[in-house]
């Protein structure tokens, strides 16, 4: 089978990654403190944060050239990008097409406009990796409908509760002459920084073959996704994030489009436990990852990266 053909199997996966002396995903509504479950103390990282890292990796590697463009990116004006699709397809922007899914009665003209929406949607899915992977709302301007992405991620949750530390930091400079005069030439700027000493996080993902057939998510796209999940932190370094890295990617490959087992049954075969409960974890080596392979149905292939 050609690798540019849409995938024909369902996949589910678990990704384990860790952070050391960094803030993996600050909460802007809480002064940029690391996100945490208030009841249990477990650390949280949003699915949006993880998708951002995948997008950034693919954009860097493929240089955002079609068919690996990135739709959701920094400083992007999304409606302008959708309009460019209309222009490329030579669709008249002066008469915005109506959405065939809005339940309104169609005229012959309306039916033609509905086809134009489908053409624009297919164009966007074909040229933008993140649209055919994660989906997108493309009806905010020139209407290109909505795309349901075949790849979805959960929030990541730390295996153990995390501790959030606050540090005072000093910059030996000021930004204005007024500040310098107030300090009598001392020229210091004080700030604060939040870190997690160590946290091992676990997130879950799902890939739907029927939805992949709708967006054109291919075998090549799948291989690029696996690569991005394993190495996405390598080009996302910053002082604020400390030392982050993917530690393990566990993939369950089904033998059919619809799958061979409930996802909870598969995820329950993977356990992550601290080796010594009497002391806090400070490295991945403090944990043991176990997979009960005998409980995985024979029609499912286990892949570890």
Low-confidence segments = 105-109
Describe the largest sheet: 8 strands, antiparallel
Task: Write down the domain tally.
Answer: 1
- Assign an overall shape: flat
Strand fraction: 25-35%
Alpha-beta classification: alpha+beta
* Average of pLDDT: 92
Number of DSSP strand runs: 14
The number of helical elements comes to 8
Summary?
This protein is α+β, with helices and mostly antiparallel strands and 305 residues long. It has helices at 47-62, 78-88, 108-127, 129-134, 177-182, 209-215, 219-231, 263-267; strands spanning 11-22, 26-27, 33-34, 42-45, 135-137, 146-148, 151-153, 156-161, 165-171, 189-207, 243-253, 270-274, 287-291, 301-304.
Note down, in words, how this protein is organized.
The protein has 305 residues and is an alpha+beta fold. The chain has one domain (11-304). The chain is 28% helix and 28% strand. It contains eight helices and 14 strands. Strands 1, 4, 7, 8, 9, 10, 11 and 14 form an eight-stranded antiparallel β-sheet that branches. Strands 2-3 form a two-stranded antiparallel ribbon. Strand 5 and strand 6 (146-148) form a beta hairpin. Mean pLDDT is 92; it is low at 105-109.
Q: What descriptive keywords fit this protein?
A:
single chain, 305 residues, alpha+beta, 8-stranded antiparallel β-sheet, 8 helices, 14 strands, 28% helix, flat
């Amino acid at each position: 089978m050609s690798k540019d053909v849409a995938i024909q199997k369902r996949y589910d996966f678990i990704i384990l990654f860790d952070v050391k002396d960094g803030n993996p995903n600050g909460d802007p509504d809480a002064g940029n403190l690391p996100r945490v479950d208030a009841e249990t103390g477990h650390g949280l990282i949003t699915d949006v944060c993880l998708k951002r890292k995948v997008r950034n990796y693919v954009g860097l590697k493929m240089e955002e050239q079609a068919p690996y463009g990135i739709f959701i990116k920094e400083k992007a004006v999304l409606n302008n990008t959708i309009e460019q699709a209309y222009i490329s397809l030579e669709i008249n922007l002066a008469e915005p097409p109506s959405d065939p899914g809005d339940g309104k009665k169609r005229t012959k003209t309306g039916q033609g406009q509905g086809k134009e929406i489908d053409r624009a949607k297919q164009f966007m899915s074909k040229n933008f990796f993140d649209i055919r992977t994660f989906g997108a709302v493309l009806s905010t301007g020139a209407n290109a409908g909505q795309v349901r992405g075949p790849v979805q991620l959960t929030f990541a949750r730390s295996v153990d509760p995390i501790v959030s530390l606050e540090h005072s930091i000093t910059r030996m400079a000021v930004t204005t002459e007024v500040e310098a005069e107030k300090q009598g030439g001392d020229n210091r700027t004080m700030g604060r920084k939040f870190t997690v000493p160590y946290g091992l996080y676990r997130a879950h993902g799902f890939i739907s073959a029927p939805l992949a057939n709708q967006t054109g998510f291919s075998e090549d796209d799948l291989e690029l996704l696996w690569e991005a999940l394993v190495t996405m932190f390598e080009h996302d370094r910053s002082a604020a994030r400390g030392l982050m890295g993917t530690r393990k990617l566990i993939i369950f490959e089904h033998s059919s489009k619809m799958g061979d087992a409930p996802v909870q049954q598969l995820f329950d075969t993977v356990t992550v436990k601290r080796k010594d409960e009497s002391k806090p974890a400070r490295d991945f080596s403090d944990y043991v990852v176990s997979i009960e392979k005998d409980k995985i149905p024979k029609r499912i292939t286990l892949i570890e990266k």
